[in-house]
User: Fold these one by one.
Assistant:
Number 1:
Amino acid sequence: MGHSKTGVAMRYYSENWYEATEKFIRSAIDFGNLKWCVSPNSYYDIPYVKIGDGANQLVINSGIHGIEGYFGSAAQLMFLNEIAPKISDTFLQDYTITIIHVINGWGMQNRMRETRDKDGGLVDLNRNFGIDFSKPENLPTNPLYHLSHDLLLSAPDPIRKKNAIKAFRSSHLHDGAWSAISWGQYDYPHGLFYGGASQTDENKMTMAIYDEIMHGANKKSLVSVGLHTGLGRFNRRDKYVTGQLLVSHPSWHQNTQFFKSVCNDTEIVPDESAVFGPTLLGDLVDCLESRYGRTDCPVYTADFEIGTGEFPIMSPVFKRMDMGDARYDLLHFGKINPTTRANLTESWYPSDNGWRDAALNRARVLFSELISNLHVRD
Ligand SMILES: [Zn+2]
């Protein structure tokens, strides 16, 4: 029985963007409200489907980071096939559910976290939202990132470079320079977690979809959850993964309290350092809050993270080294070494079927909590 269940779960996963998109539209079209956001400059249009007709908005998006593979897509397919058909009509009078499928199609197809900008830089979409790109002096700064940039982009070396990054982590774990690597930066187009020099097409398309969702005066609330992988634990032997809801606010914040009241079996991860403002520069969840939040229309946002780190200490070291190696390869040889590519893929999107099955089960728990407890609130 375990085997047949795994077989069903595996059906939701895809090998490439085309397969994932075709599966999504085949399942979404049953609900009748399939739409597309079409970009004039992109081959990767974004399909989305709306279910229900309520004034409260529940949005589940996937695929901001292409390297995270087809977990988000699979979880959305599972939602459409297993959860959506069982949702009551009363819920759908209170809520409109929108499923946005794969925001970063290019990254997904090319196994990159980022998307490309005009100059060949690699833009992390989740550092590109809500940023004022009109003047360079308006861009956010991240001075601590400079400390690690040269090391991260140095020539690949599985032993020397790994040990150097490990040592950098040890000496900068408490002064902010280690965590600053992932906060986002706007100075090095080939650096890690680069936020871009302009609003990307994918950013514009995403905001166009959210604007359409939030258009009109009768909107009561927005609950938006993005599906991600890469943060948290994966125990290969026990086929155990963590599922963490990153609420990007301190414990006392209403956003954190909201998700705590809705989710009983999903771990809520507050960000205690985000007291005066967001820790991550240019991420979608903060952008949604400032764009749509009003006293008569609260906005609750979070990112759901499925764990992939098999060695909790070394996993972030390897991930950053692989990202730096990939950039070194691109800058010097125009393409990424297959070993680096395989390492990158495996550390964000494990090929292990036990991981894929457990990841979907985590998503199932979260979706069930959202549907049953959001309803209870009203
Ligand atoms: Zn991500």
Note: The chain has a mean pLDDT of 93.
Number 2:
Amino acid sequence: MQPWRKYGAVVTEAAHFLPERIVTNADVSQLVDTTDEWILERTGIKERRFLDEDKPTSYMAIHAARSLLDKSGIDPLTIDLVIVATVTPDMVFPATACIVQAAIGAENAWAFDLSAACSGFVYSLVTASQFIHSGAHRRVMVIGADKMSSILDMTDRNTCVLFGDGAGGVILDRCENSSIGLVDFLHRADGSDKSSLNVLGGGSLNPASHESVDQGLHFVRQDGRSVFKFAVSKMAEVSVELLDRNGLTGRDLKLFIPHQANLRIIDAAAERMKLPQEKVLVNIDRFANTTAATIPIALSQAFDEKRFQHEDLLLMTGVGAGLTWGSALFRWGENCG
Ligand SMILES: CC(C)(COP(=O)(O)OP(=O)(O)OC[C@H]1O[C@@H](n2cnc3c(N)ncnc32)[C@H](O)[C@@H]1OP(=O)(O)O)[C@@H](O)C(=O)NCCC(=O)NCCS
């Protein structure tokens, strides 16, 4: 037992929100030179959801947050902290987390955004857990939300076929039993590679200007091949290392909830852990890569389907821009909070 853990940090509710508008591979192939077969074979994606152009990321985050409150019946005044993981905040500031905090009436909570791209949710979940482990907080809301359609160049087939919009989140509660909830985590970053996946414009390096927009610097750009290689090796490596150091193997897991960037990346990680298909959550076919939202959406779906029970082990692993990657091992707990 790690000395930093006084209390257990337990997920007691999960919820998600997906926009209604379905954009199929056939729809995308009207815009760029691609085909349904190519996208499906190379990525596993069949369709994605796009939010209406006039609605921001907070629209989805607030829906997910309200759904968390409705499903759990908790009083928003009992929330101590709201964290929103996103790379598509409504604006540079204030933080999207503050917009969510106000919308749900979490008047006693402080709030901030966390930027770690596709690792944003696992980074946030582990950050939130520390406040609960230490006894500083009793209840934290963690949301992952991204409106990737707002930063996609719909003329760039290297990126526009891969992403979608969505939001998901959890309520993390204090549990007197410190062996339940977050068991261990392993997070990494390598800031030396800024070029393989980024949005270069709109920050202090390249403030928005006519030139920056003309050059398309406000769009996602990526070197798909190098990101793919990185993700294949890191998703498996960090997952196996975390299991190893806890004396576990894939056999001990009830579910593996990986970031949904490419089905081939997920399959490679599952193979390294010798996980059968039924232990691996995959929804990339319907929602594509929703960045910080992929893991909480998948977790919420599994939660609703009651796919795990008290004391089951879950592994969530994210990989993304930064470069960032990380894995969080949870022992599912009931009767806490
Ligand atoms: C983007 C990705 C799907 C491309 O798949 P790939 O098998 O690596 O394909 P390649 O990049 O080797 O490209 C193969 C060919 O397909 C072409 N191609 C790329 N995108 C295409 C598309 N949407 N439709 C059709 N052809 C496409 C390429 O131009 C290339 O053509 P060429 O051989 O004539 O040069 C894959 O690299 C990937 O998933 N990368 C990681 C992306 C990611 O996860 N990003 C977020 C990180 S969290």
Note: Residues 1-337 form a domain with the Peroxisomal Thiolase; Chain A, domain 1 fold (CATH 3.40.47.10).
